[in-house]
Amino acid sequence: MIVELLPDSVVAVESFGDDGADQAPLYPEEFAVVAQAVRTRRREFAAVRACARRAMAKLGVPPQPLLPGERGAPVWPAGLAGSMTHCDGYCAAALVRATDLVSLGIDAEPHGPLPNGVLDVVSLPRERERLVLLAAQQPAVHWDRLLFSAKESVYKAWFPLTGKWLGFEEADIEVHADPGAVHCGHFRAELLVPGPLVGGRRLGHFRGRWTVGQGLVATAVMIPAV
Predict the structure, then answer these.
(1) What average pLDDT score do residues 32-46 get?
(2) What is 171-212 written as a DSSP string?
(3) Do residues 65 and 183 make contact, with C-beta atoms less than 8 angstroms apart?
(4) Which helix (H) or strand (E) holds 55?
């Protein structure tokens, strides 16, 4: 899923199902974060960090605690950019050296319609208009859920660069299917607030990729180093 969306410079590790989730070890500092959480939250927290540490090992980075920082964003070792995601039955982590990408965001969601009323909260009117056209062309894709996932990936790539919140209404995302493809494509997120400075250049938009399969929709945003 996530792996097919990312360039070769990114190391991604995925896990399907719940196998091994209870055995994924946590550092004491990590366990303290979720000690009072429900069992499901503890399992997800541990499983996605197990993926992240496997990715770190592939990059030659020693295993170490991965603690949530401001607004819950993971604090990565110096010199790395990364992102994690988890939903029912799936988790993934993606890591890259900051010399290759300055930031990235990944997200996975169950491939089903959003609950009633959620789309109006997380989208702009013009985004909803475009979703109607996409649904008419390719009704097998739950475009509302895909849009939500894309917004999550945009935020995850945005926050490490800015340290600021990005509201759902502050990015206008246009989704496209790849030519001749049904279950994969790309998207462009126009930032409706001043974008981050990267290499002295202010970014006005982010670009990303999406795919649908195995009961999931997955999205990824990559911000190249300049």
Answers:
(1) 93
(2) EEEEEEEPTT-SSEEEEEEEESSPPPEETTEE--EEEEEEEE
(3) no
(4) helix 39-58
Give 67's contacts (C-beta < 8 A, 6+ positions apart).
29, 30, 33, 74, 75
Instruction: Describe the strand order of the beta sheet including 216-224 as a list of residue ranges.
Output: 101-110, 216-224, 205-213, 184-191, 171-177
| Residue 3: exposure state from Cβ atoms within 10 A (0-12, 13-18, ≥19) | middle
DSSP string, 138-175: -TTS-HHHHHHHHHHHHHHHHHHHH-S---GGGEEEEE
Query: In the structure, what pLDDT confidence band is assigned to residue 182 with cuts at 50, 70 and 90?
Result: confident
Q: How far apart are CA 156 and CA 86, in angstroms?
A: 13
Query: 63, 57 in Cβ contact below 8 A?
Result: yes
d(CA 39, CA 62): 28
State the DSSP H helix or E strand holding residue 28, giving kind and residue range, or none if neither: helix 28-34
Distance between CA atoms of residues 174 and 131, nearest Å: 9
Q: What is the mean pLDDT of residues 138-158?
A: 97
Average pLDDT, the chain: 94
Location of structure tokens 């990015």: 171
Cα separation, 137 vs 149, whole angstroms: 20
State which H helix or E strand residue 39 sits in. Answer: helix 39-58
What average pLDDT does range 146-155 have in this prediction? 98
Q: Which two tokens stand for residue 168?
A: 């759902």
For the cut 70, the answer to whether the pLDDT of residue 22 exceeds it is no
